[in-house]
Design brief:
This protein is α/β, with parallel strands linked by helices and about 475 residues long. Helix content is about 30%, strand content about 20%. It is built from 13 helices and 19 strands. Strands 2, 3, 6, 7, 8, 11, 12, 15, 16 and 19 form a ten-stranded mixed beta sheet that branches. Strands 1-13-14 form a three-stranded antiparallel beta sheet, with no helix packed on it. Strands 4-5 form a two-stranded antiparallel sheet.
Length: about 475
């Protein structure tokens, strides 16, 4: 009954338990992708040409901006909770309080607490009674100050959407959110949507979805037996952002932009982001057209096989085995495509770009996390010049216009296992293959170098003091 209530089957849960027992294999990483091998370095002229190609095509396309926004801001305010609950005061708390009036949320905060209040009262008003940021998602946190009023993170995505995802005057944005926060998003957007529609002369089509219960995974004890709560029930946990491949699969569009909720900057700094997003989309449009032509030639039996192979290797970044044939080329071309912005590695966390060996003899590009790489191959991490800021433009239609079933292109062998706890008891948890990792393992993947100015995440609240957010 408990399994069926989650939309799961006994067989699926048994497979999950088997994953705990045997673990997930490491990726067969061959080498790090680099500007010399696997990362496209567009010249300013090339960026401009790609941007123009997208702009020329966009009004005839169905475009959606897909924003994973279900994560709570727990990590963002972790240090604040430790200060309020345990009295632990580190450097981060000093920075927060020394610069408190510089945060965009300061005027709101002062509605709940006096400037003369003691430090713990001020910090408590940020995370608890007052702003209540400790129980809100990042999307509903005030990020940036403007003369006309402060903006929350979700509002910046409305602005971005109008600037690069408008097709025929319509801006379609899809947010994945936690069930308990849907009303909060709807309330805010009902107020703000008309403001930005008037400002940009567009109409927004905003939709929401929640992570499906059927993607939850069972928790187990350290000995890999099913974990039961104190009342004897099985414990199922959300399986990480990889579960969102189901939500993405429900989106009907020609092009889907994917970007995390916290990776936004101020209007004064949005220029690079907008230009690069359009350029990445232009690269995708160009590839889709070329793929359609090559597939038509292959299926008619009139293809120049060597020319198709050159396209696959040079444009789609697929290293072919020596014994490739027309059938393999057709199978390789008939896949979803993602064009991923990659920024120079400056010490920020994130998955890296790597060449990976596949069972069909090919080598393709994938975004790999350090946990997916074996200790013997860990030295390859040092060769990675770039990392993934979650900056993707996805093509999810076939050449004939039908949609790909994205669940067919997941590598189920690329999940994650981690140690957690519930009710003070240790447990093991399982995450599905990450959305931009194993969930897209069998997509055609192209990496494009983009400037670090396009990456401005907010991992902790003090990040809002960085120049990108001022």
């Amino acid at each position: 009954m408990e399994i069926a209530a989650h939309g799961l089957t006994v067989e699926r849960v048994e497979r999950q338990i088997e994953n705990f027992r045997r673990g997930f294999p490491y990726l067969k990483v061959v080498s790090a992708a680099s500007p010399a091998d696997g990362i496209m370095m567009l010249s300013p002229q090339g960026m401009e040409e790609a941007r123009r190609e997208y702009e020329a095509a966009v009004d005839s396309l169905e475009v959606v901006k897909f924003v994973p926004a279900s994560g709570a801001a727990t990590r963002m305010f972790k240090e604040l909770f430790e200060f309020v609950n345990e009295g632990k005061r580190g450097k981060g708390i000093d920075v927060l309080l020394d610069h408190l009036s510089e945060f965009a949320f300061y005027p709101e905060l002062m509605q709940y607490v006096s400037p003369e209040a003691d430090d713990r009262t001020k910090v408590s008003a940020i995370i608890r009674d007052g702003l209540c940021y400790g129980s809100k998602p990042k999307g509903l946190v005030t990020f940036h100050a403007y003369p006309e009023g402060a903006r929350k993170a979700v509002e910046e995505h409305l602005v971005e959407g109008a600037m690069y995802a408008s097709a025929g005057g319509r801006v379609k944005i899809h947010f994945t959110v936690s069930p308990e926060h849907v009303d909060g998003f709807r309330t805010l957007l009902a107020e703000k949507q008309p403001v930005y529609e008037k400002r940009f002369g567009v109409k927004y089509d905003i939709s929401f979805s929640v992570q499906k219960a059927s993607t939850d995974t069972i928790a187990v004890n350290p000995d890999n037996t099913p974990f039961r709560t104190d009342d004897g029930r099985l414990l199922f946990r959300p399986a990480g952002h990889g579960a969102l491949i189901e939500n993405l699969n429900d989106i009907d569009a020609d092009i889907i932009f994917i970007k995390n909720i916290d990776n936004v900057t101020t209007d004064a700094r949005k220029g690079d982001t907008v230009a690069c997003k359009k350029a990445l989309a232009g690269v995708l449009v160009h590839l889709q057209r070329a793929v359609a032509e090559h597939l038509a030639a292959l299926r008619s039996g009139k293809a120049d096989i060597a020319a198709v192979a050159r396209f696959a290797m040079k444009e789609l970044c697929i290293k072919l085995p020596q014994n490739y044939d027309a059938a393999l080329l057709e199978a390789l071309l008939d896949r979803p495509i993602r064009v991923c912005g990659m920024v120079r590695n400056e010490g920020e966390p994130g998955g890296g770009p790597f060449w990976v060996a596949n069972a069909d003899g090919t080598q393709t590009l994938q975004i790999a996390e350090s946990s997916q790489i074996s200790p013997d191959d860990m030295h390859l991490m040092k060769d990675a010049t770039h990392f993934n800021p979650v900056d993707l433009v996805c093509g999810v239609r076939r050449a004939d216009g039908t949609k790909f079933d994205l669940t067919k292109y997941v590598d189920p062998e690329t999940g994650f296992i981690s140690s957690k706890s519930s009710g003070g008891r240790e447990l093991r948890a399982q995450e599905l293959p990450g959305l931009w990792n194993g969930a897209m393992a069998h997509w055609n993947t192209v990496f494009v170098d983009v400037p670090v100015s396009t990456f401005s995440p907010v991992k902790v609240v003090q990040d809002l003091l960085r120049p990108q957010h001022r």
